[in-house]
Amino acid sequence: MAAIPQGFGDFSSSDSDLNGGYSDLNSYSSHYAGTLGDDSDASGEMEDSMPTMEEMSIDDSLTPVERMLKYARSDLVLHRLFVAKDIVDTLRSSLQDSNMDSILQVVGDLMADPEPLIRQAILQQAAPLAKVAFAHPQLPNPRAAVVELLRLSSALLPDSIESVRQVAQTAFLSILELGALLPSDIETLVCPVLLRLATDDLEDENRMNAITLMSKSTPFVSRSVVERIFLPQICILSEDAMFRVRKSCACAIGPISLAIGTKLTVDRLLPKYIRMCSDKIWGVRKGCAESLPDIAQVATPEIRETALVGILESFATDVSRWVRSSAFQFLGPFIATFANTAECVEYPVPPPELREQHGLDAPSTDESSEAEVNATAMTLGGVTIDESADDAASSSRTTEDETPASPPPVVASPTAASVFTIASPAKPVSEMNKVEDFNAFNFWRAPIPAFEIDAALLSPAKPSPAKSAAAPAPAPAAPATTAPATAAPIATTTPASTASPAPAVSATPVPAKEVELPYKLLEFYIQMAEPSSTRSIDNDIGFHCAYSLPAVVLILGASKWRLVRDTFLTLSRDLQWKVRRSLAHSLHELAAIIGPELTETDLRPVFDVFLKDLDEVRVGVVKHFADFLTHLAPEARAQYLSMLEELKKTENTQNWRFRRLLAKQLDKLSQLFSAHEVKKHISPVTLALAADDVASVRGVAHRSLAFMVNRLLQEGATSSTTGSIAALASDLSNHVIEQFACGPSFVSRMNYVQICQHFVEVVAPEAFTTRFLPSLLSLANDRVANVRLSLARLITQTLLVRDYFVALSTSDAVFQSTLQQLRTDRDRDVAYYANLAPGSDSTNPLVLEIQAEEADDLLDGVA
């Protein structure tokens, strides 16, 4: 017999081994059962500790103040949360000094609650509490209550929970916005809080919060406070060792500069700003790019046209695509600041290729101009720009900036990476900066030469003629994307008093007061519309370009529209509908700038295409339909009358807001055409929208119809062709009465009452009494109670508040009998409104309709 293998011998072990295995399983089962037993006991204890429904309920028999005092110190979080949410209503219900003291005591206790949810909830009510307390004169000292609420809110600014800190910031700024604090309160309460946060060396979040609060509170404090307290702290924190703090400073430097004015911005903030523009962290440079328009708004023209233009160029060619994206995003607002330039005497001439493209004469070049282009160094407004390190600086750039990058150079042209930096201070800001001396990044990158800021740049005073004559003439190279390196140089716009002789620069003289734009900025702006050049940075670059187009055209003027005409056409063909939508909303503004002739040739074809585009694009055209037609010749306007019926049609039949926008344009359109054209083309569309299924559309159409009828009535009474226009007015009035007052549906008859309500506001009382009042009073016999109720409200709340109709109610028998019939109507609601005192109904349907329209206008603006 063959021997059993060793492994099988082990497998056929004794029963004792098997029993041992089962015993282990039994012990595990008993342990598992014991664990279940323990859990069941724990769950039982938890159920015993949970509050019952009776314990969680709120006693409604108590007064609001008693209920607040009882549950503010409850052990249940739900009770304290209820008190925090209900504390504003508690204050409204009992506006007394003693109650205010109790409420402030409860607010202080809840703000010290250990639960973050409670602290956040009471902070959300701090600003409404301050608003209610300050608005009610019943309180003996409402300002003291506001000051106490501000003090309590500021105590949570350094809270350990981020959500609580954010709500505390919102409450702090909202209370400041009330304007209830005196200058002494700002000095003794607000400033110490911000200084404590700004000087906290342990928590970076506190310093960042201090910077944010300083920048956002500048509209609510005096300029003296900003100059004495905020400005020194911003200057100190701009050199902080933590990049997040420097990033906050970069974002806050814009509002601070707007608050302190030109001199302090140039003397103190500009050096810090330029230093941060060369920061190694891309987030800091991105914040500087976002603040550039605010800095440019208060800077002198010399600095704006030299140093700040160079800074923007460096951002547009930065190694980080996030910085480049911000540079292009804020390029339009930066260009808009050039409208502040008081005097400009030269306009930069485009390179030959661009001039040929737009039909302009090419400038002449000579040997001296080529020498200026090939210069390796030049001075712009006292700032020396060295171009000797172009190749080395450009070779060190990478395509991404996920890690801290090298300081971005401020270049003189988009193609040459000319370096512009500030000399480092003799003493480092902190010991942490010494680590950067041993960073390997400093040994393989190209060396960056340091330059000192010329005092002439930082001084708002104009340099002397001797210095201007001695300085080399600026000759930045033309961008390579449009012209070769040998193209004629482009002169930047400079004021007449500081422009230095530049014989090599060919420029077109313009009137001294005309606002001009440096061509470098225009070149960058034109690049934004090209998908191949900038869409790799950010897909929204085209949208920002379209959004800023009216401002750029306004600065250029109609005479230089051809420089951006191709950009406009490129944007109009963009594949992204939001780009075309932004352009559609601004066509009427462009038409007002460039004039009727260019509007007819360049804008009108795009306008026609947008009328057939997606609803998201069409809405911009329809919203300003009449405004655009204003800038067309009368013959061209008439061609759009036949398109009104098509404009009512949308891709989505539920898109009633589109019809509402069209209804708002009908009144303006009726002012652009003759009475015959209004009756033939515009009135049918108005009558159709007046019977729309959506009440908001009907309300707007009713108002437009009232203005339209009033215009025909007035022209029929004053025009030389009285007979024909009067016949048109009579025909339209009869059509309104036939369609609505005599309509088969009770909804149509109710619409007639609403139309008459607008007629009373617009049409002369005599004309209304003659044409519309008889058919209106006949609705008192309508079989539908809602129609009679609408009529009763119209008579008591609209007609009888006017002296003309009050006199008519006592002299006209039909009016008297109708009013008496409504007062004794079998429907009690009709009788109630018919017996109301004139003008006593707070729910006037016309007022409610206007409020609803205002709310819809806000929604349309958001959409």
TrEMBL record:
| Keywords on record | Repeat
- Give the range the annotation lists for the signal sequence: none
Annotated region (Disordered) at: 349-413, 462-484
Cellular component GO terms held in the UniProt record: cytoplasm
Gene Ontology MF, one: protein phosphatase regulator activity
Q: Which InterPro entries match?
A: ARM-like (IPR011989), ARM-type_fold (IPR016024), PP2A_Regulatory_Subunit_A (IPR051023)
Does Repeat show up as a keyword for this record?
yes
| Protein's UniProt name | Serine/threonine-protein phosphatase 4 regulatory subunit 1
